Amino acid sequence: MVLPTQLSLDGVYRDSASGRHAALINPATEEPFVEVAVADAADVDAAVLSAQRAWETGWRDLAPGKRTEILFAVARTLRDHNEEIAQLETLHIGKPISDARDEVALGARVFEYYAGAITQFCGQTIPVARGGFDFTLRQPMGVVAAIVPWNFPFPIACWKAAPALAAGNCVVLKPASLSPLTALKLGELAHTAGLPAGVLQVLSGSGSTIGDALVTHPLIRKISFTGSTAIGRRIMELASRDLKRVSLELGGKSPNIVFADADWRRAAETSPMSVFANTGQDCCARSRVFVERGIYEPFVEQFVAATKKLIVGDPAKAETQLGPLVSSGQRATVEEFLADARKRGSRFACGGGRPRAKGYYLEPTVLLDVSKEDRCWREEIFGPVVCVTPFDDETQMLRDVNASPYGLSGSLWTNDLRRALRVARRVESGVLSVNSHSSVHAEAPFGGFKQSGLGRDLGMAAMEGYTELKNVYVGE
């Protein structure tokens, strides 16, 4: 397998202007395996200027039917290279290969969705009081910057790039420094499929260098960012200087609420993967579990038993469910939370240790008797740790659920339809699943309330977010 090691600019691989490279570490082995080009502000400027030219000289005015054909071709090309992309994902972030294959398929499906949406993306005609003819247009913004995280590098790159391209924008894509390989491969394959040169540029390197240069570049019209709330605040501050549009998908501390009338056995059996999938490195992780007291003890017993059955191991093996954490630093951060939980007297129902001598592995950990004031309860851990607590009163439980500064996702388990609708309305989150743990659908908007962000990815809402709304009035 040939690894992409250069920037993807104007449809070809190129070295950075400085010629600098940085090593990538395989988190399953702790060994460096390749060096990748590191872009700087000069590369950002070159990429943005090229993207602006591509936008002005053709992409924004390309017939919708032609854009549709190109994006469908990109989707087919991604499907044809599913295994190659999945192997790259597993190599640089330790994602289990079965998950990586599913996520590549999701990326291709996102391109298919927006390819089909192009000719269905319409304005309105409006009967205004004074007569005449009034109508609206959705127009592309220009060059947009997409900054994606390391936990789901390929699908998030696709669900930012695809709607932006479908709407007629050009994109400069900045992957996380830990996980650039699949974004670079996306740039290559998109142009192989017929995307014109300059329409999608991919820059690997440091977020503090490239990210700041993108956010402050005068030709960038919008920033779409997924990552930490702290970095989201900085992006919003920098973007405010020239009123760039921003969409931010940030942190989470999502609840999993289980009522006694639910099929709680199924909830207990399936809920571990709602928090431990991707080794807990997921902003949608249901890391706070609220269980009605009447079923609390048997639920915990079954939840812990299901957790202990999870297969932690080599991410290259198909049977592996949990791979390593992405880096030594990330594991150290999670272990600091666990040390704090021990100090404060939380009960470890299972986990908390390192299951392997090599690799950044950590056992899935279930914490009981956690105070609502403890860090593990309040803060996003971004690792395989869950807190489980009983509740007696629905009203008080909802207060505790909504006490978090975050509001991204969550699950609710009940067989009472009225309760499901009532509680779903009152949980302060952008996404909620009833009797399910599914958060992401290509066809539906995804994003959060409060400090979990602004704007939405996916669905038609994302495509709207990459356009400016223009009103045109024609007098009689």
What form results from the Cα inertia axes?
globular
Q: Rg, please?
A: 23 Å
The percentage helix is 40-55%
By DSSP (H or I, 4+ residues per run), the number of helices equals: 16
Describe this protein with a few key phrases.
40% helix; 476 residues; 7-stranded mixed sheet; single chain; globular; 22 strands; 16 helices
Describe the model.
By secondary structure, the chain is an alpha/beta fold. It has 16 helices and 22 strands. The protein has helices at residues 41-59, 64-80, 82-93, 97-117, 153-166, 181-192, 207-216, 229-239, 264-270, 272-276, 293-309, 328-343, 375-378, 394-402, 417-426, 459-465, and strands at residues 7-9, 12-14, 21-26, 31-37, 125-126, 133-140, 143-147, 170-174, 200-202, 220-226, 245-249, 255-258, 288-292, 347-350, 365-368, 385-391, 406-407, 411-413, 433-434, 449-450, 453-454, 467-474. The strands form 6 sheets. It has a 7-stranded mixed β-sheet, sandwiched between helices. Helix 2 (64-80) crosses helix 6. It is globular, with a radius of gyration of 23 Å.
